[in-house]
Write a structure and sequence with these properties.
single chain; mainly alpha; about 75% helix; about 90 residues
Length: about 90
Protein backbone atom coordinates (compact mmCIF):
# COMPACT_ATOMS: atom_id res chain seq x y z
CA UNK A 1 0.00 0.00 0.00
CA UNK A 2 1.25 3.47 -0.90
CA UNK A 3 0.88 6.03 1.84
CA UNK A 4 -0.27 9.46 0.76
CA UNK A 5 0.54 12.76 2.42
CA UNK A 6 -0.69 16.25 1.73
CA UNK A 7 1.50 19.32 1.57
CA UNK A 8 0.48 22.92 2.13
CA UNK A 9 2.32 25.01 -0.41
CA UNK A 10 1.70 28.63 -1.41
CA UNK A 11 0.15 28.96 -4.87
CA UNK A 12 3.05 31.06 -6.14
CA UNK A 13 5.59 28.41 -5.15
CA UNK A 14 3.53 25.67 -6.81
CA UNK A 15 3.39 27.67 -10.06
CA UNK A 16 7.14 28.33 -9.87
CA UNK A 17 7.86 24.61 -9.50
CA UNK A 18 5.56 23.89 -12.46
CA UNK A 19 7.35 26.45 -14.64
CA UNK A 20 10.95 26.28 -13.41
CA UNK A 21 10.88 22.74 -12.03
CA UNK A 22 14.24 21.75 -13.47
CA UNK A 23 16.15 22.79 -10.36
CA UNK A 24 18.68 20.01 -10.72
CA UNK A 25 19.30 16.85 -12.61
CA UNK A 26 17.60 13.53 -12.41
CA UNK A 27 14.25 12.01 -11.77
CA UNK A 28 13.38 13.93 -8.62
CA UNK A 29 13.31 17.34 -10.30
CA UNK A 30 11.33 15.85 -13.21
CA UNK A 31 8.92 14.25 -10.75
CA UNK A 32 8.45 17.49 -8.79
CA UNK A 33 7.76 19.50 -11.94
CA UNK A 34 5.29 16.91 -13.22
CA UNK A 35 3.58 16.78 -9.83
CA UNK A 36 3.33 20.58 -9.73
CA UNK A 37 1.87 20.73 -13.26
CA UNK A 38 -0.72 18.07 -12.36
CA UNK A 39 -1.63 19.92 -9.17
CA UNK A 40 -2.00 23.17 -11.10
CA UNK A 41 -4.31 21.41 -13.57
CA UNK A 42 -6.33 19.91 -10.73
CA UNK A 43 -6.63 23.28 -9.00
CA UNK A 44 -7.48 25.22 -12.18
CA UNK A 45 -4.22 27.19 -12.17
CA UNK A 46 -2.99 26.33 -15.67
CA UNK A 47 -3.70 29.80 -17.06
CA UNK A 48 -1.36 31.23 -14.42
CA UNK A 49 1.27 28.60 -15.32
CA UNK A 50 0.96 29.47 -19.03
CA UNK A 51 1.21 33.20 -18.27
CA UNK A 52 4.32 32.64 -16.14
CA UNK A 53 5.87 30.44 -18.84
CA UNK A 54 5.19 33.14 -21.44
CA UNK A 55 6.89 35.76 -19.27
CA UNK A 56 9.85 33.42 -18.78
CA UNK A 57 10.19 32.92 -22.55
CA UNK A 58 9.97 36.67 -23.22
CA UNK A 59 12.66 37.37 -20.58
CA UNK A 60 14.89 34.65 -22.02
CA UNK A 61 14.40 35.98 -25.56
CA UNK A 62 15.20 39.54 -24.45
CA UNK A 63 18.40 38.40 -22.73
CA UNK A 64 19.39 36.33 -25.75
CA UNK A 65 18.78 39.31 -28.05
CA UNK A 66 21.08 41.47 -25.91
CA UNK A 67 23.83 38.85 -26.07
CA UNK A 68 23.45 37.55 -29.64
CA UNK A 69 22.05 40.65 -31.35
CA UNK A 70 19.06 41.27 -33.57
CA UNK A 71 20.59 39.63 -36.65
CA UNK A 72 21.21 36.38 -34.81
CA UNK A 73 17.68 36.45 -33.35
CA UNK A 74 16.31 36.95 -36.86
CA UNK A 75 18.16 33.82 -37.99
CA UNK A 76 16.87 31.89 -34.99
CA UNK A 77 13.29 33.03 -35.76
CA UNK A 78 13.71 31.94 -39.40
CA UNK A 79 14.99 28.53 -38.31
CA UNK A 80 12.08 28.12 -35.90
CA UNK A 81 9.61 29.08 -38.63
CA UNK A 82 11.19 26.55 -41.01
CA UNK A 83 11.08 23.75 -38.44
CA UNK A 84 7.54 24.63 -37.37
CA UNK A 85 6.30 24.72 -40.92
CA UNK A 86 7.84 21.31 -41.64
CA UNK A 87 6.41 19.81 -38.48
CA UNK A 88 2.98 21.40 -38.48
CA UNK A 89 2.47 22.61 -42.03
CA UNK A 90 2.36 26.29 -41.13
CA UNK A 91 4.16 29.14 -39.45
CA UNK A 92 4.63 29.41 -35.67
CA UNK A 93 2.30 32.39 -35.60
Amino acid sequence: MVEKHSVDIPEGFLIQIAVYGKMGDGELSDYMRNWAVQECKRLGLMQKVITTQSRKIIELRNRLTKVAGLDAMGKIDEAIDTITSKLFGGSKQ
